[in-house]
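Same chain as my last thread, 625 residues:
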Amino acid sequence: MPLNLFFSKMTDIIQLLPDSIANQIAAGEVIQRPASVVKELVENSVDAKASNISVNIQDSGKTLIQITDNGIGMSETDARMAFERHATSKIKNTDDLFAITTFGFRGEALPSIAAVSQVELRTKQENQHLGTLLIINGSQVEKQEVCSCQKGSNFVVKNLFFNIPARRKFLKADSTEFRHISAEFERIVLAHPEIEFSLKHNGNEILNLPNTSLRQRIVGILGKQIQQQLTPVQIETPIVKISGFIGKPENAKKMSGEQYFFVNQRFMRHNVFHKAVLQAYDQIIAKDDIPSYFLYFEVPPSKIDVNIHPTKTEIKFLDENTIFQVLVSAVKEAIGKFNLLPPIDFETTENVDIPILTQNTKIIPPSIKFNENYNPFSEEKNFSRKEKTFREKQNLANWEKLYQDFKNDEQISVSESENETKISFIDSVQSENLPQTATQNSIMQLKNKYILTSVKSGLMIIDQKGAHERILYEKFLREIESQSEITSQQILFPLTIELNRAETSLLNEIRNELFSLGFDIAPRGENSFLVQSFPSDIQTSNIREIILSLLENYKHSFSLENKEKNHRIAYSSAKTSAISYGKILSDEEMQSIIDNLFACEIPNYSPDGKKIVVIISGEEIENRF
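reply #2:
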């Protein structure tokens, strides 16, 4: 076939995507959930120099997201252009990318939102008598006309992901989605205490924040209990200026959520700077505790890069190592300056008896006693080489006498038992690997972390914490689902705990299920609760710490997000209540864990999917010798 004829028969297959599809693809990166819409639109209002911004949410943003501001507004042409891809007023040339002082600059947010929702925009500039109404349905402009409206912009986003059912199906429960919205909202309002903000959900006012100082804005978000915990931080260098507040060491929690970094009034996540703060608190707080901090960085825009992620929360610093050292120094200075270090108690429980000396007191100096007649070179004390050798052999011959007084029950025996527990194992563990019924010293603990026991095919190693989590998880799940009466411990003097707003919302969401487990927790104020009882399985007196850890585990139970709330609560409670590594277990406790573990439906995996049981075969053990 002639070459020109061959090429003439080829079909072109590469083509440009329609704008609607391209916008939906872009929306997959920028608009991940309703909270993403709130973030982008509120940041646009801040860029528009608004002094008052209100957010109205229905059904956690799935039905309605409305953002109203009194900013500079847009002209008729700008309103239409704002929904075109890569249309922006912030960037005109390459140099502008290195001097970004606004939140939005890519021109992707509005077209991405319009591609996956139904949008209505009413906007008017201050010097105009009439504004512009724009209605867009899935990237298609349905109406554009003049209207009467207030100065600023009013965005209404309806039926998010209505044209992408798969994305809408994967949205989480309303409580989870609204928690994400609240988190995004709080990050913005903490960066701008000079702006008035309000947030409503399903007609209920959640927050109403006037313009105020940074300290009062933090208190308005997290509650009055944090007022006395805030310690100011202030340092200024040619490279960076750092200001804000840190929490007192005694108020550090195992629960994250009160850690905020901002650079040039933009919220950011930065693991390196987080480690800097923890380094400053080193040996002042417990190893697993996390202090609160609200730290604001001011850096020349040319020294940072915010254009590395669509959400613009990951930021690169040109002088990261230097800022790290400055941050450690600033936090340590605040800790020392405001006496945040725990006091050292020099008082002793017993008084030291020191005799009173007077002029007539006779002081007797210490004396040294020794035998003047001792001669180390005397021959009568030396043994001949032959005699010494004989004595060594005599000692070796009678070495058994060294152990004649040892008790037999202190010797460790890993013998197999005649009676085996007949429980089927799941997946990789076969029936021949069943743990044997405990005989004396047939179980031992390794490094206070693992339980070792003999099985027919070799040696079984059990993760004690993972095993206890599995046991408690299935027990708690049965109690929640059956609503049966459980044994709880009554607190002689009911405990009052103060939570921040996010923790309060989380506790209210799961309080009924916690009651089924034995927690009797009653509201006592806006962010205050009264704890009157707790489950009998929890062996601790620090109930406040248990509840905070439970909330933290529930909030971060990502591995079970696709399961029902009951599973997540049971998992969180089990993870909080399970025995920890380092706990010394008696033989009875180890045998109880083994028996209860293999009575579970899934004994070889923890609730979050980690392996609990490992078997080392007898053949593998023999090969090592």
